[in-house]
Amino acid sequence: MSAASVSLEEYADALTAAFRGYQFPMVLDVALLARKVRLEQHDLQHSLVAYEGDRVAGAAALAVRADAGWVGGFGIVPEQRGRGRGRELMSALLEQARACKLRRLSLEVLAQNAAARRLYEGAGMHVVRDLLILERAADSGAGAGTVAGGDSLKVEEADSLKEAAPSELLTHFARLHAEPPAWQRGLPSLLVGNLRGLYLSERERPRAYALLGRAQDGNTYVSDLAAASAVDAAALCASLKGVAGALKIVNEPEHSLFTAPLLANGFVETERQHEMQMSL
Asked: Is this model's pTM higher than 0.70 or not?
């Protein structure tokens, strides 16, 4: 049934139950779900909660932007796995996507999750690129005396990073993205996120910028990286050494301008996801 037909609490509980036992469980309460819906533009009317009798069997979240859709969560509760419930739920979700008149649908799946990839391929999806999850430990070369987190974020003057409002930097989003970002790092998500902006070069026309934010889990994430060229991307990655503390980056395209310089400046790949897509 439609997620809009149940309370936000019931929908949050359904998604949490559907992700039990997965490598990265999705644990949601009403506040976290509301934030996820707002940041990722979920369509509750066309998202689904599946039942077996009066018990939740699974849940699927559909996010919509114009004629593009994204699966923001898809899972079957542990006791219902291996019974074909995933195929049934995926078929129902595709019906909802077509009802929205979407032209394409995408999602991410962990590279090691072969069963889920087979499910999505069976529904007509194919891998279009790999997305990396990267992390930098707190002691991986951040400049002495720098601070990051909470309501403050400072960098060393020598690193040439300067601070500006994210809304100001995002006016350069299209110019500075050579490759389309993953859904969670798209412009609509960034515009409503609680982020801080750092840039290189002139404020009126930056050569590169980064948007950082503190998430609910207490970690600092780099939510956007943008640069005019590979040289500027390398300079920005080197300058991030001036930002203190651990940093995480989720879903950086494998062949972006930033992957190699990030790895050269203290980041390591911790996970890899396949971005899958299909036309409708």
From this structure: yes
